[in-house]
Design goal:
20 strands; Metallo-beta-lactamase, Chain A; globular; alpha/beta; 7-stranded mixed sheet
Length: about 325
């Protein structure tokens, strides 16, 4: 394939792409008249000045709704995309693909002159119970991939087995007359736990306002059943029977995160290694499926993962830095 000179990428204000026109992905701040692609609605992927955005904010419909209703982005600047539907941004064609990380999460494929660059954002090739599907990885010449769990020490157990253990624990806590409480991110893990408990139990699911706001945004794409309660921290509590006067702080608390493989926070009764990210083997799968000849990494264990790609697989790979790279 003929190499197109001039497409440049770097990691500075998020992922910056320049090729006659300029695009930012998961930017830290907006820039006058420079379009921002937002992979999903976690706060570390949303510009800090989103309420006073200086440019268009391009995302999927669920992420777009979160930008407007939770982050208070200017409605007129939010551009909602459908998965698989191509749009023109400047001199580039851009297509969102399912990332499988959280509801609405997307990878972005950027194309110009036959050159294809794929940015994964946070990605999960296994998907989950409250996402649009597992990662739908298109082929690309260049791959920019997250490496949150990019070390060989992060190999998650079968996630359906972990889900079964979560349900078993919740039912056990309820049978003891206590309340199982899941301390979660308001977007992503919250909907995963709600969907899991809706699907496998008849327990009533109670959520805090912060979780409810994000869960409401995910309806009707995901049919989740829950009720609101008042509590200090984002959580999904589970009770049997009437929910009035429930003091969820008196329950037993669990977390569900990939970090449970190596960490267990204090004051937590159980830690389940259920992750919305790819583990090490999942990241390798993304690389193989993309068929990319060049790989650049961001977040987490960037050096570990690129070293493995170079030494074991013979793939040109490096962490993305503030220096421009022509691809």
């Amino acid at each position: 394939m003929k190499r197109i000179i001039g497409m440049k990428i770097r990691w500075n204000n998020g992922i910056e792409v320049s090729n006659g026109s300029r695009v930012l992905m998961d930017a830290k701040r907006t820039v006058e008249d420079v379009p921002i692609l937002i992979t999903h609605a976690h706060s570390d992927h949303v510009p800090r000045d989103v309420r006073r955005s200086k440019s268009k904010l391009i995302a999927t419909s669920i992420t777009g709704r979160a930008l407007k209703s939770v982050y208070r982005a200017p409605k007129e600047l939010v551009v909602a995309l459908d998965f698989g539907k191509e749009i023109e941004v400047g001199q580039m064609r851009i297509t969102p693909f399912v990332a499988g990380h959280v509801p609405g999460s997307a990878m972005f494929l950027l194309e110009k002159g036959g050159r294809r660059v794929l940015y994964t954002g946070d990605v999960n090739p296994r998907g989950g119970l409250a996402v649009e599907g597992p990662a739908d990885v298109p082929e690309a010449d260049v791959l920019i991939i997250e490496t949150t769990y990019g070390s060989p020490k992060f190999r998650f157990p079968n996630q359906n087995f972990v889900r079964a253990k979560i349900v078993e624990w919740a039912l056990s806590v309820v049978s003891e007359g206590s309340i199982p409480i899941f301390s979660v991110y308001p977007l992503g893990k919250a909907q995963e736990i709600i969907a899991l408990l809706n699907k496998t139990t008849k327990l009533k699911v109670l959520v805090t306002d912060e979780v409810a706001r994000m869960s409401d945004i995910c309806q009707p794409t995901f049919r989740l059943s829950y009720e609101r309660i008042q509590a200090l921290h984002p959580m999904v509590a589970v009770v049997k029977g009437p929910s009035s006067n429930v003091l969820v702080e008196r329950g037993k608390t669990a977390i569900a995160t990939g970090w449970a493989l190596i960490l267990r926070p204090r004051r937590v009764h159980r830690a389940f290694p259920l992750s919305s990210h790819a583990d090490f083997d999942g990241l390798l799968e993304i690389v193989r499926r993309s068929k990319a000849k060049e790989v650049y990494t961001v977040f987490g264990f960037s050096n570990d993962f690129t070293s493995y790609l170079r030494m074991k697989l013979g793939i040109k790979a490096a962490p993305l830095t503030r220096e421009w790279v022509t691809v």
